[in-house]
Write the structure tokens for this entry.
Amino acid sequence: MSTSETSRFVRLRVEMVLEITDAEALSGTALESIAAEYGEPDGESAEERMQAESAVREDGAEALASLVDPFDLVSEVPGVELTQASWSCETVDYDPEDPDAWDLDEERDGDEGDDDVAP
């Protein structure tokens, strides 16, 4: 296949397991980000803001998902433009000593709950 026949689009998959070492710092940063995004809590955005704040206070995975922006990962890479992104965070049981802990093929079947974003 020549270069002109190949697709210009590339799917980049990134899988990470992160350990939350300071839940208060994580949720605090997420709350600051929400405050900056929504501004003063008034009108229609007040309910959305309250829901977002509640979610990040209760769940570290939600706090992390609210802070991760796929655009930030590639925005300064020359020659590429983000056309669509999806991501999700979930709490998982993880044992770094388990040799099967990084078996990604099993988890690919259930890509439910992803956040799709088209900039």
Observations:
- DSSP finds five helices and two strands in the chain.
